[in-house]
Specification:
Layout lengths: L19 H10 L1 H14 L5 E5 L5 H9 L4 E6 L2 H13 L6 E5 L13 E7 L8 H10 L1 E17 L12 H19 L10 H7 L3 E12 L5 H12 L11 H10 L16 E11 L3
Parallel strand pairs: 1-2, 1-4, 2-3, 4-5
Antiparallel strand pairs: 5-7, 6-7
Helix pairs in contact: 1-8, 2-3
């Protein structure tokens, strides 16, 4: 599994509003990946009337849905009102405001406020923030119209930004950061209200929710070196968030390597080195509610 979260310390609470700029920058950088995923969904879903983005954040992907499906109404759902304000502003700025709505509240209960069933429900890397994922999928399925599609983006591969050997420190820094990230993710899941351990067999869980015709496909983001200024800024922000890690999480030599990567004066920092890239793979699972 791959989870690119912004906070990696022992505290598993996430301040989503505080992360707004980072979330927006990440989604914008990853737009080519999302565009390919949505184009694939466009072949799976026929002219949806209502698309609901579950855990929409600042609405970058919600607006991509509005662009991909020009006849649909899009509803962005999130627990953070400040993020939804950004989503609405983006939709207005891009000319989608007349068919774009927002709904503030915690999943899955907030879906009781939907006025009519959805033709497409999308949960992009948000399901794993809900304690009982099986119950959440069942609740999502109940809000689908007959013949409607539930699509979840979960799993894939950890992102990579640098070569294995940085020219300093021990080779394999990113692999060790991945291991620390997985430990944080396990703590985050354990701390969620009502958390339930699940084998992450998403097609099986979708089938258990009463849905049919499960499909899975992964999508690649490949931004080769030399990185653009926007990609470089994202990579720098990604590594900067490891500064929150407590001293016992990373070995001293790895912490020293991170310091060098983040020092703009260092020619081998992510700000200046020529071999910075972005390579990521996210996986989408879909299923259909029987008509």
């Amino acid at each position: 599994m791959a989870h690119q979260h912004a906070h990696h310390g022992h505290d598993t609470e996430i301040d989503w509003a505080d992360m707004a700029s980072h979330l927006e920058a990440q989604a914008e950088l990853f737009s080519p990946l999302y565009e390919r995923a949505l184009a694939w969904l466009g072949k799976e879903v026929t002219e949806p009337g209502l698309i609901v983005d579950l855990g929409s954040g600042p609405g970058v992907v919600s607006c991509l849905f509005a662009e991909t499906f020009p006849g649909a109404r899009v509803l962005a759902v999130d627990g953070s009102a400040p993020l939804l304000e950004r989503a609405r502003a983006r939709a207005d700025r891009l000319g989608h405001g007349d068919r774009f709505g927002v709904l503030a509240g915690e999943l899955p209960g907030v879906l009781d406020e939907l006025e009519y069933p959805a033709d497409l429900l999308w949960a992009g890397r948000s399901l794993h923030h809900l304690g009982d994922q099986r119950a959440a999928l069942t609740a999502f399925a109940e809000r689908l119209a007959p013949g409607g599609t539930l699509a979840i983006m979960e799993g894939g591969l950890p992102s990579r930004f640098l070569p294995r050997d940085l020219g300093f420190g021990r080779p394999g820094l990113e692999a060790r950061l991945d291991a620390a990230q997985e430990e944080w993710f396990a703590r985050m899941r354990a701390d969620l209200p009502g958390t339930v351990d699940e084998t992450e067999d998403w097609p099986a869980l979708l089938s258990a929710a009463g849905l049919k015709h499960t499909r899975t496909r992964s999508f690649l983001l490949d931004l080769p070196a030399p990185a653009s200024d926007r990609a470089r800024a994202y990579v720098a922000a990604h590594f900067a968030r490891w500064n929150d890690v407590s001293d016992d999480t990373l070995a001293p030599d790895d912490r020293a390597a991170l310091d060098r990567l983040l020092d703009p004066r260092d020619p081998l920092s992510v700000h200046r080195r020529a071999d910075v890239f972005v390579l990521a793979a996210h996986t989408v699972h879909t299923a259909v509610k029987p008509a």
